[in-house]
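PROTOCOL LOG
Step 1. Enter all chains and additional molecules of the complex.
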Amino acid sequence: MECFRIVGPTRIRGEVTASGAKNAALPALAASLLSEGPLELSGLPAVRDIRTMRQLLGHLGVESEEQGEVVRLQAGEQTHFDDAPYELVKTMRASILVLGPLVARLGHARVSLPGGCAIGVRPIDQHLAGLEALGAEVQLEHGYVSARAHRLTGGVFRFTAPTVTGTENLMMAACLARGTTVLQNCAREPEIRDLATLLRKMGAHIEGAGSERIEIEGVERLTSASHRVIPDRIEIGTYLLAAAMTGGEIFVRGAISADLAPLLEKLAASGCDLEASNTGLRLSRAGDLKPRDILTAPHPGFPTDLQAQYMALMTQATGQATICETVFENRFQHVSELARMGADIRINGAFAHVHGPTPLSGARVMATDLRASACLVLAGMAAGGETIVGRIYHLDRGYEQMELKLQQLGARVQRLPAEPTRAA
Ligand code: EPU
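Step 2. Run joint prediction.
Step 3. Record the structure below.
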């Protein structure tokens, strides 16, 4: 199994360009099922989750070809299949994003239930209740969701709690429903706004995406469109945190400050200098780091997808920082690995108390999920000596060419084909 070998401590210094957002690209790809196409997408990051979604779409009969950085997807007439099998869905929960578009366009779909994952149970009850509110008949059988509707009908649906892919699934389904749909208590993430922009280019009538109430007036059909996905705010945040943690300086080209507000506020309060421009965002840190508490929450709260990386930063702050994870119930698996590198962190339910600063020392650690892996890479760059981060296939799901980008920033990070038999 491939791993990263990191030799620290390093100071991150230089410029890096943001990749397209994985979590905007996934629903954008799924949207290709809504029309005959073609749908031309650019800015898709070269990461494993995107390859998995393209494979799933291929299985559903969507033809895709690459022309430079543009991916051209063509679902064609009603020739595609309606079945998303376990083998594909189990590797990526976001596969559930094909459910809404398939039911809306074909009138039926059978998608494997994604099941739990390392960061929590993650049910999809809201996706299903929402589809039922639009008139679909939903059944769970043999680990699969089957949904049917001759034609979906607009309705009013209130999410019990905001869900990102749930909001996206229903927004896509409602585009082809008869009449008006009102979705309430929606997730407000920038990726949802981006999907609405794409759907509008395809001819959908959507208002309010990015707010808690989204109104969609269904249309008979959607058409071809071209779209570039937004930059990846979580990737950008990860590189900003890397520079903050190592006392370095970075310019992230393509960063949109407004989408990163909750992180930038904490970085500024903890002693980092930030400067936003039209082209990106600069961060540097020369002085000591101050501890600052965070509480993860749906957008515009602090993103759960940056919690692990922020925790790595707080190990270097002087004093105690409390981190409260409210979105997923099991997203502290990086804590025991950080402790192996010397961090002093106590967990109490949804709270993690980080006592710093602790000098970190290189160790063998194991990635458990995508963002936990990124946290360990950050810790490895700040730590003295060699760190081996195992199971980096998690990282490859969502970070494009991470080792190359970090090398460009002066870090000593190498991808090894297998874990060494013992640390050097
Ligand atoms: N939830 C339910 N029922 C549902 C749906 C969600 O109870 O039907 C709960 C979840 O269990 C969780 C909370 O609601 O406690 C929020 O989950 P959400 O549905 O918003 O998560 P998601 O849509 O499955 C997306 C991102 C995740 C990110 C979360 C939260 C994509 C493809 N994935 O997941 O990204 O952590 O929103 O912001 O957009 C990552 O990139 O590392 C990642 C995990």
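Step 4. Note key features.
The domain at 22-228 is CATH 3.65.10.10 (UDP-n-acetylglucosamine1-carboxyvinyl-transferase; Chain).
The chain has 14 helices and 24 strands.
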